[in-house]
Design a protein that fits this description.
The structure holds two protein chains of two kinds. By secondary structure, chain A is α+β, with helices and mostly antiparallel strands. Chain A is 23% helix and 31% strand. Chain A has three helices and five strands; from the N terminus they run βαααββββ. By secondary structure, chain B is of the alpha+beta class. Chain B is built from four helices and five strands, in the order H-E-H-H-H-E-E-E-E. At the A-B interface, helix 1, helix 3 and strand 2 of A face helix 2 and strand 2 of B. Strand 2 of chain A pairs antiparallel with strand 2 of chain B, so a sheet runs across the interface.
Chain lengths: 144, 159
């Protein structure tokens, strides 16, 4: 994990270090088991094709989890995640990179808390935004 | 031209109905397995020695862990609604955290449908189901609120 980031050091437009994940079909099965989600479009190609999909697809929740890691890696142990959300706009396919990016869209102090709002997204290797989202984080301040 | 609504009475009558709670013990092994599945090596999810020294005082669950704290009632309802729209997709998720979910917590999960809308898009006719899930700990405190959009959509017959 990177060293702690502080509210004082963050400006609007600041970009998070990208996180590159590579979900394999094996990871989809691991996710299915760990999350107890056995919907067949994520591991049974015949079933996926019969449902008019081009093949098995990555669970939306798994891509969402990658975005969670993007934000928690960035905010460090002393950051607090308040809210994270996303929309599943495009299909994410296994065995290719998922590139997670984020940037600061707002920073302000509210009720004594240092709040940072982020725009986050998961892209495929072509640069298509598959899963756009937002997150709200509370960061520590250097001035204590 | 007036088109018949794809939203049925069965769907409408399900809105606002809270499902009975499903209760989960948050086990260290399940949290670790989840962290391994998402391939997130953050020590807060696995390493007691590191987690203990943080403000959490122990192992916490990753942000998307509530995905496995499922109350299947709403998704099952949406899956089983009688409609010619055969496909089911997850449109989006949002999680709002009021407190961390920690190993040792007992989390009670209730869910309900809060709204239904129909649209026509790239996949043809679609119905959007908006669901809310509340996660409460053993003290009765809401630790997390989940919002999910489920989509029933047309599945075109293969030629």
């Amino acid at each position: 994990m990177a060293k702690q980031i502080y509210f004082d050091d963050v400006e609007v437009g600041h970009e998070l270090a990208p996180l590159i994940k590579h979900p394999t079909t094996q990871q989809l099965v691991k996710w299915a088991g760990a999350s107890d989600d056995y919907y067949q479009i994520h591991y049974d190609k015949d079933f996926a094709l019969a449902n008019n999909l081009p093949g098995v697809i990555v669970h939306g929740w798994l891509t969402f989890s990658f975005l969670g890691q993007l934000v928690t890696d960035w905010m460090g142990y002393e950051g607090t995640l308040r809210k994270i959300g996303c929309n599943y706009r495009g299909m994410n396919f296994p065995n290719q990179d998922t590139i997670c990016r984020g940037k600061v869209t707002k920073k302000y102090v509210k009720d004594g808390e240092n709040i940072v709002e982020l725009e986050i997204k998961a892209e495929n290797p072509k640069g298509d935004v598959l899963v756009p989202g937002n997150a709200t984080v509370v960061l520590p301040s250097r001035k204590k | 031209m007036v088109q018949e609504s794809a939203i049925t009475e069965e769907m409408r009558s399900a809105v606002g109905v809270d499902s009975p709670p499903v209760v989960y013990d948050i086990e260290k092994g399940a949290v670790k397995k989840f962290a391994l599945a998402i391939e997130d090596p953050n020590p807060l999810y696995q390493d007691e020695n590191v987690a203990r020294k943080t403000e959490y005082g122990g192992i916490i669950a990753p942000p998307t862990f509530p995905s496995m704290l499922r109350n299947p009632a709403v998704v099952d309802k949406v899956f089983n609604f009688k409609t010619p729209l055969k496909g089911l997709l997850n449109g989006g998720n949002e999680l709002e955290y009021l407190k961390p979910i920690k190993v040792g917590d007992v989390i009670s999960v209730t869910a309900k449908l809060v709204d239904i809308k129909e649209r026509t898009g790239a996949m043809g006719k679609m119905i959007f189901f908006f669901a809310e899930t509340a996660y409460k700990n053993q003290k009765g405190e809401v630790v997390c609120l989940g919002r999910q959009t489920l989509i029933r959509h047309e599945v075109k017959e293969k030629k």
